[in-house]
Amino acid sequence: MSEDFGTVDRRPLATVLAANLVSIAGNCLTYMGVPWFVLQSTGSAARAGIVAFCTLLPAVLAALVTGPVIDRMGRRRVSVASDLACGVAVAAIPLLQFAGILQFWMLCVLMAMTGLFRAPGETARGVLVPTLAERAGMPLTRAAGLYDGAARCAALTASALGGVLIAVLGAENVLLVDAATFAVAAPLFAFGVRGLPEARAQQRAEPASLRVYRRELAEGYRFVAATPLLLGLCLMTLVTRGLDQGWSAVLLPVHAREELDGAVDLGLLNAAFGVCALTGALVYGAVGSRFRRWPVFTIAFLIGGLPRFVVAAFTDTFTPLVVIMAVEGLAFGVLNPIMATVTYETVPEELRSRVLSATTASVQMVTEEVSS
């Protein structure tokens, strides 16, 4: 425990975990509610795809370029502004629809706004984990496991409840519920990191300018390029998340429709994977510091890759696939906390916002999932 903090204080970490859980749950509801809203209001799958693209592209661009902005504005302000902006944009969709003035281009602009603000908010919260862990007197491995576990729990809960809420309340009202989650997350995070020096704006000797911004942005990317570990993680994430997106978005749904019992089995398979991934993250957070990371990561990586493709290729029954997906979920739950821990330990505090913003972009390029 750092002597700077004096006594152990776990409240900031607990509050930030709760705020992140609520915020990510809101993101998940957005990505469930908006496509249903588009399909119900227009009946066009193509338009739903256009809206998804309008959300993804700004998220990637924001992740690529907002690292220096997070440092200049402060992580607390950026996270709060992110949640408030996303809440306003999401709430505007049903309100404009109720008023009878919502146009398709407005929907695209509002969803682009959510994408633009989401990535900086996630980065601003994530870079504070080492400081919060130290203040809580907690091993960084455990804090990273809890942080990833909270994100997975939010995604799992929102995914499970989202379909029910849409069926009961309608897509428009679910988006209002979604907006309320952001309204809760913003003050919760603001309260949790109040007075934390690392959450404030970083003081710079030079005033903000385009030249200084370009130099600070380049510093983050140069650090990634000059650090083989980080560069390898980014490249690995691009490849593996791309394959995983192909599996979850195309191969598994087609397999469930053609060989299994359709949507019911698809939902059960995803639920088994999600629950076990959450379990893996929490278990590793609790006991992971006792083991060497490299062997654990290697074993988890090998388990979490090829087996499900092989099982799906050679069987047309549900049981073998749900078993292997549960095992792979446990393995995947271990990977993120390990990668987060080594990243936090490798990157200096003053570069964390810029470096983590760059590494976040490698995830945003291949997937819209909020729980990476």
What's the total helix number? 15
**Structural class designation:** mainly alpha
Shape descriptor reads globular
**Beta strand %:** under 5%
Would you report the number of β strands? 0
- Helical residue percent? over 70%
Question: What is the element string, with H for helices and E for strands?
Answer: HHHHHHHHHHHHHHH
User: What's the end-to-end separation, in Å?
Assistant: 28 Å
Account of the 3D structure:
The chain is mainly α and 372 residues long. The chain contains 15 helices and no strands. α4 (75-98) packs antiparallel against α8. It starts with 10 loop residues before the first helix and ends in an 8-residue tail after the last helix.
Topology (elements, then pairings):
Blueprint: H1 11-42, H2 45-65, H3 67-73, H4 75-98, H5 104-126, H6 129-135, H7 140-169, H8 171-192, H9 210-226, H10 228-258, H11 263-287, H12 293-303, H13 307-314, H14 318-346, H15 352-364
Helix pairs in contact: 1-2, 1-7, 1-8, 2-5, 2-15, 3-4, 3-15, 4-5, 4-8, 5-15, 6-7, 7-8, 7-11, 7-14, 9-15, 11-14, 12-14, 13-14
